User: Fold these one by one.
Assistant:
Number 1:
Amino acid sequence: MAGALLCPEDCRLRNVPSLADVGRMGQILASLGVKLERNGDILDINAQEIKQSQAPYELVSQLRASFFVMGPMLARLGVARVPLPGGCAIGARPVDLHVRGLQAMGADVQIEHGIVNAYVSGSNRRLKGAHIYLDYPSVGATETLMMAATLADGETTLENAAQEPEVIDLANFCQAMGARIQGAGTKKIIIDGLPRLHSVDYHIIPDRIEAGTFLVAGAITHSELSLSPVVPDHLTAVISKLRSIGAKVIAESPNCLRIIGGETITPTDIETLPYPGFPTDMQAPFMALLTLSEGDSMITETVYENRMGHVAELNRMGADIRVKGNHALVRGVPILSGAPVVGTDLRASAALVLAGLAAEGKTIIKGLQHLDRGYENLDLKLQKLGAKILRFDGERDPATEEVSASIANVAG
């Protein structure tokens, strides 16, 4: 959606989920003067007339991904003002890599009163191609600088770039608009800047983390599920760990996976790493799975420093998890027990839903505003798979006598 700012013509995105983050990003683009029209999973975007170069704080503060407008706006207009982003409280995630990269491309960047002010001087107001080495393979920095470079004057090289499938998808999207990008998906990306990009009709890849969440749902409930459409190559690390804990994962077709949960769950050790390593977004769901393993597992989180908020809530359900620094020792228990719990971030909320599916009795989960950021109708999809799950939104929940958004899971 942010990449559509690069193009002064119509952009059509297909396979766009109905998520809270998508809605917020739409509000941010609309505040800049972009026209958006939604029809099912199709989103039409026209950024021909960008009326202002400053994104509003009240929207940016709710969504970290909103900072993605910085690169395209600066490349297109020669000026951009974006507040420092907010979003999930799972770590610092500073924007220094983004800023240093834009500075290398000739931008003057100042951070004052919580706002990143950037502009390009010169007669044509265009960024200049540059050689940029990223100290860390940040997805956000890679995507921001790649988008900015598509309209820069000259060639830009990104070294130690992130290799996630989403980086490749964004590069393919920009290429469909005419951008010249080579090497996306490797550690070295080369972009040959152009003065202008053109209209596009583009189909976005399936969400590998949503797919991974459903695979874990099959494993934790010892069930058999088929998932489609998925890209199995995007789930290599997740599939490998699922097989190591005793589940069978079968590729039924190029875009369909079937999981057959094992009778027992074997313990395993996990270390989160940038792609193609084990994804940090699957750490919490896998922790929920390993609480029911027959032995001890060690989970090491190396990507974000505050991503263990789900531990206390899983322990409320009878799990035996101890945290020291960025390590969590998960001692498997025979059963989990339903309990009232609160999701502290997006993937923590998903982990609690998975734990509730396998727990004995009723689990009531609050904090669904986090879940809605990354899952569309998760409760309805699980219902269709046979889960006993009900959602209460702003209604008086008879189980708690409180008015709130919550999900009640009842193991069947």
Number 2:
Amino acid sequence: MKSKYISFGKILNFHGIKGEIKLGYSKGRESWVAKLDKVYIETDEKLVPVHFQYVKFTQKSAIAKFKEFDNINDILPYKGCILYIEKEKAGENLEEDEYLINDLIGMEVYVNDKFSGVITGVSNNGATDLLSVKTKSGNLSLVPFVKAIVTGVNIKERKITITEMEGLLE
């Protein structure tokens, strides 16, 4: 069941006494998070549907309120819980050249039409996203996810092409 959903954030804490939460999410995704409506809170291996009433962004996190909760006692049991969205809905809010991490993991990496490795993860160093690529030789390489290096992403074929650069995939 959970394969139909992807995580996008976490309830870090409560905020005030009116049922607001402190929401943790990936930086740079404010416009994407702001478009969300129905989300799911994971609790005891089940997903509880809730709806955002509003989301306000701060420097370090976001303050949000769900329509279903009116006071601190309503939200306290969910402190530390992970938030999910339906996978198909997540794709609707993506900009051009934006991809879901879940879609990238497991994709094959090619350089000059030659298989070079598989994406095992995605991270961010503060400046750019990095693809973790397990190479044919078993090494792990970090590839900056920028247009100058990643020249093609084909979700349907599960294939990414990158520019040949000495030492990048060893």
Number 3:
Amino acid sequence: MKKLELIIVSLSLLLAIWSCKKDEDKPKPVVDNTRPIISNVTTGKADNTFQVGQTIQLRARLSDDTELGQYKVEIHENFDGHSHGKTSSTTPFEYKKIVNISGKAHDLVQDIKIPENAASGPYHLLIYCLDKQGNEAEFVLIDLNITNSSQPVINITRINGKDASKEVHLHEIGSDTVSLQPEGDITDSDGLAKVKIKVVEAKHSHGKNSEDHVWEWEQENNLSNRLDITALFRNNPIRFRLTKDGKPANENHYDLMFIAKDKLGNYSMQVVEIHAEK
């Protein structure tokens, strides 16, 4: 009996060893953790500004070390505000297209026509890409500006007496309070429906500013065809603390943003770069 038990144990050990050796001989699966790459992105215009009715000629190179799987192109508005269901003669432009692809390289070619009734204003164009294993490329975000003939006209000419078309450098010796006196106006022949002015810390990541504002002003009522920015801030300048990430700072960069909406649903935006230091 003991001899039989010994034989059974020996056979079990031999089977276990053979099984382990067989598993070792099997090729191990290759794990793909490498992201695909999106490169050589162009829209057909260097400044990414398009009039309604024009075509965005989107081109890009998609590549992966093993196998591509899919890409998505999306366009949505980047307006600072919402219509809350109010009807208008213009409509925010939206676009989305998903395409399955294969191979290690693919030339993305999309001709996207902007509708004639698209609302003017800032938009985001995004490109996403996945490989067959589900790895996602670092997405590409492009700031588009869509224009039409009836959008609000924002004309900010000077900040504290300095040219607003360039970065404005402010030196407030010994003070941690920034004061801004913008000059100019905002006009629209169809009537202004909303104006927002805000200051945000300039954290440009994928073309997007920080959502945290350090100062903000907004008006939706009692607006006519023109808002005199010079008169608005002549006696009450924009004032805020010099901070970086919410903490006291000796210097920082800010974006002073002017956003206007007209009664047709069109938006316009002008951004002035501010460099402030004690």
Number 4:
Amino acid sequence: MTITPTKISLITGASRGLGRNTALAIARHGGDVVITYQSRAEDAQALVAEIEATGRKAVALQLDTGDVAAFPDFVARLRAALTATFDRDAFDHLINNAGHGDYASLVQTTEASFDRLVNVHLKGVLFLTQALLPMMVDGGRIVNLSSGLTRMTLPGYGAYSAMKGAVEVLTRYLAQELGGRGIAVNTVAPGAIETDFGGGAVRDNADINNHIASITALGRVGVPDDIGPMIASLLSEDNRWINAQRIEVSGGQGL
């Protein structure tokens, strides 16, 4: 009898926020997880322990997704971790989640801020995916995180949203190029979510929270549990024919 190995998902930027929630959702769906973190080592290890408490396997690896020069070392550490923790030499799913927000009007956006956004949200996504593709199984899945702000505008989010718009185009091209390997590539675009992203403004500022709720069809702001389980579901075989799509998960925000 052939035993199908447990799927392994690699999630970047998973020590907090939507990445953390996604990792837990995947574990609850029966998957194993590799998470990356930039600086929150204690938070990452706490997440590993929480995943292991569900009966699944997990490992945390440090990675700055904006530092392309560090990717070869990360690939080597990932190979070692896959062997040591999962007895595998490949993984199944890549979720490009890591990100940050530098908010300013386009007139006030600095070159340094713009470059940080490019390096993490676009350049890092492309070249990390490129570096990891030899270790992905045929028939795998890639999910790139975008934003509802590529469909609607909000003052101060122009540069950030431009990066996410580029990621949506990148997703379609990856889907075309990787189709021969059976790898489906999709974009998930969350609406406003109550996390600590961007200093926690959506979560902690009552005026912002109330305004977003007022323009959302379901009448509230999103929470992490609205996103992580959706991504976990997208990775399942039930959704194997979804490919090259931008899937907005916003509760009907800004209709």
